[in-house]
Specification:
This protein has 6 helices and 10 strands. The protein is of the alpha+beta class. Helix content is 24%, strand content 21%. Helix 5 links the parallel strand 4 and strand 5. It folds into 2 domains: 50 residues, no CATH class; 184 residues, Sortase, Chain: A (Beta Barrel). The longest helix is centred in the first third of the chain and has 30 residues.
Length: 298
């Protein structure tokens, strides 16, 4: 005969059972939850697992260090949030400057190395004593020689305006429409101060030291059967859109142009020199190209 239990006894048994057991729903063999209508794919619909008594359950010690306490008791006022945002912005800015500076220095490493080599030279070798010009020859190779900075490169005199960038790979270029050396007019010569590392050519840093020239320094242009020596009379920085540096002059003049500061195309450094030695030729009759392309060219 089945004994009936009172309501209080059933409630006590239920509380005792649920405090020592936990009900879990096992996963099916097919990967899904148990289905009450699918007894083949699952072992059973649910099962009860006995828990160990509370006294037997291992307790993991919890410790707090100073940083944890600061996080717990950290204030969250608007001013605190503002300074947190400021610190994040400053940190991001510092990282950007460091990364940008690294890549900028890497891309312009050859030009900076040339400047560092110049700065480390002995001051007695910066300006060598003048030497007499060699005996005249039939034709000199067209080139530019700046003894103070150790600059020596071929000069291309027959390049058109749209060929300047391409011809700068093999030397410096006389700007189309300007004078020849010795003429009463303006000889304008352009060259790279720096260029991209992947650019070809061995003259992409040839004018990296133009800013080292001062008034009185000599620039030599062998041309034809003569050697023309110009002495620097002025240096200045202009914007790329300033076309007055290309204008014809009333005296034999040499103008050197390159990008400035080093590694950028923001401005142009201008070196203006007057003829000091060499025969004076005829007056310049050509005009430099002053079209729209000049203002947009790098």
């Amino acid at each position: 005969m089945r004994m009936r239990r009172s309501t209080d006894e059933l409630l006590a048994l239920t509380c005792n059972f649920t405090s020592n057991f936990v009900k879990i729903n096992p996963y099916c063999r097919s990967g899904g939850m148990a289905d009450a209508h699918d007894s083949k794919s699952c072992v059973r619909k649910s099962m009860w697992v006995r828990l160990p008594p509370p006294a037997q359950m291992p307790l993991k010690p919890v410790t707090f260090n100073e940083s944890d306490l600061k996080k717990i008791f950290r204030q969250n006022t608007p001013m605190v949030r503002f300074w947190r945002a400021v610190r994040r912005v400053l940190k991001a800015t510092i990282w950007f400057v460091v990364v940008f500076g690294f890549f900028f220095a890497a891309m312009n490493a050859p030009a900076y190395w040339q400047r560092a080599s110049y700065a480390s030279r002995d001051s007695s070798t910066v300006q060598p004593p003048p030497t007499p010009p060699p005996a005249p020859v039939v034709n000199y190779d067209p080139e530019i020689i700046i003894a103070k900075t150790g600059t020596r490169a071929p000069v291309i005199y027959d390049a058109r305006f749209d060929e300047i960038i391409e011809r700068l790979r093999v030397g410096v270029v006389r700007y189309e429409g300007t004078a020849d050396p010795g003429q009463v007019g303006n000889v304008v010569i352009v060259g790279h101060s720096s260029d991209f590392p992947w650019s070809t050519g061995q003259y992409k840093t040839i004018f990296a030291l133009l800013d080292k020239l001062v008034i009185g320094d000599e620039i030599v242009l062998p041309f034809g059967q003569n050697r023309y020596t110009y002495k620097v009379r002025e240096t200045k920085i202009v914007k790329p859109t300033d076309l007055t540096v290309l204008a014809r002059t009333a005296t034999p003049t040499l103008t050197l142009i390159s990008c400035y500061p080093l590694g950028t195309a923001l401005n142009r450094i201008i070196i203006i020199a007057s003829l000091a030695d060499g025969p004076i030729g005829p007056v310049q009759t050509t005009e430099p190209f002053l079209g729209e392309k000049l203002t947009t060219a790098r």
